[in-house]
Amino acid sequence: MIAEKVLFLVLDGISDRPCEDLDGLTPLAAARTPVLDRIAAEGVCGIMDSVAPGIRPGSDTSHLALLGYPPQEFYTGRGPLEAEGTGIHMTAGMIGFRCNFATVDADGLVTDRRAGRISGTEPLAEAIRDGVDLSALGIEFRFEAGAGHRAALALVGEGLGDKVSSNDPKKEGARPLTIRPCTDDPADAETARACNEFIRQSGEILYGHPLNVRRMEEGLPPANLLLIRGAGKMGELPPFSERYGLSGSVISAATLISGIGKVVGLEHVPVPGTTGSVDSDLDAKVRTAIEELGRKDFVLMNIKGADEAGHDGKGIQKRDFIEVIDTALAPLLDLKETLIVVCADHSTPCSVKDHSADPVPVVIRGPGVRVDRTNRFDEVSCAEGGLHRIRGRDLMPITLDLINKSHKYGA
Ligand code: ZN
Ligand code: ZN
Questions:
Q1: What is the pLDDT, as a whole number, of residue 280?
Q2: Lowest CB count within 10 Å: 49, 88, 399, 411, which one?
Q3: Is the pTM of this model over 0.90?
C-alpha cells in the first residue's frame, strides 16, 4: 500500500538540551509520551538540522525549509509572512511589516510597548484604514489588526525598498525613533518616508479615537502609537500545489506559521479555542487536522506551547505540556493510510531561553517506511534511527518519494 495523504506535525521548539531540574534529561525524554513513542516504534526515525548544522533557525526560516522552500532562496524577512498571516494578501513587491499598538505619554515617550496588552483593536484598525492617506506619496497601504496588541502593515507602490529601520525604541521611557533608510538606495528612502508619514497620520487618528478616550477614562493605557518593524519585500514563491502536485492546508494559531502556509498557497484553517499557547484546545486542533485530511492531500499542523516554555526556561512546565500534547495526539494513531511526519522546527533549550542549532528529532510513520528499531520519540533515541541525520529541506523530497510522487532523476 502507498499513502496518498500526508500530515506534517510540527511540535514547535519541543526539543531541548539536558535540563538540570530533570536529572539531566531533556523535557521530551523526561515526558511520558506513549503516543509519540508508538509513532516512533512504527516509523523510521532520525534527527534533522532544519536549516543547516550550526544554524539557529527562526520558526519562519525552519518552516520554509520543512516545506521545501530553502530560506536561503525564499526568505524575505518576517514582516511579509506576519502580514499574510494577519490577513493581508501579499503579492510580489509589497513591503510587509509587523506592528504593535503602543502607548506614548504627553511628552512623547513610549510608556507601554504593548498598550497594556490591549485586545479588540479592530475599530482602531478600521479608523486607520479610513483615515490615513498616503496617496500624495503615490503609495497605497493595507493595515490589519491581529491578536492582542499586534497588527500588520503593507505598503504597495512602485520602487519601494525594504532596507529600513524601525521606530521601536525597544524600551519604555524612550522616544519613538524616526524610521531611516539603511542604504543609499532611493527606494529605501521612499519606504522610510512612507512609514514615518503613516506613523504620524495613524497617531493623530488613534489619539482622539473613542476607544482610546474610554480606555483613558478607565485608567488603561491608550493605543495611541504604532511601532512598526520587520520590514521585508514579498517575493515570488512557486505555489505548493504546482511544486508538488498536492493540495494542502495549514493549521496553526501562530500568524507567522499560518502566513508561511498561505504564502506558499496552503489554505489556512482556523480552529476556535486555539491560542498558540499552553492553554490551547489541542483536541479541536487534532480533530480539524483529521477532517482536513479528508479534503486535502497535505496538512501542516503546528503546535506551539512547548516553544514558549523553552523561551521561559521552564523545563518542568515544558515536560508537562509535552505530555498534554501527547495525549491529544492519540486519534492520529488510527490514521493507517496517511504518512505522518512528526518533528520540531528547532530546539528551544530551557538553558538558552531561545532557539538553538541542536538538531531536532523526526519520525515518518505510514505505509512503505522501513521501520527501524527506535521506539522512543526523543532527541537521543531518534539519533539511532534509520533516517540518520537529514536537513529540513530533505523532508519534502523524502515524503514525496514515499507517496510515489517524486520523479526519477536520470534514466
Ligand atoms: Zn518555532
Ligand atoms: Zn521560539
A1: 75
A2: 411
A3: yes
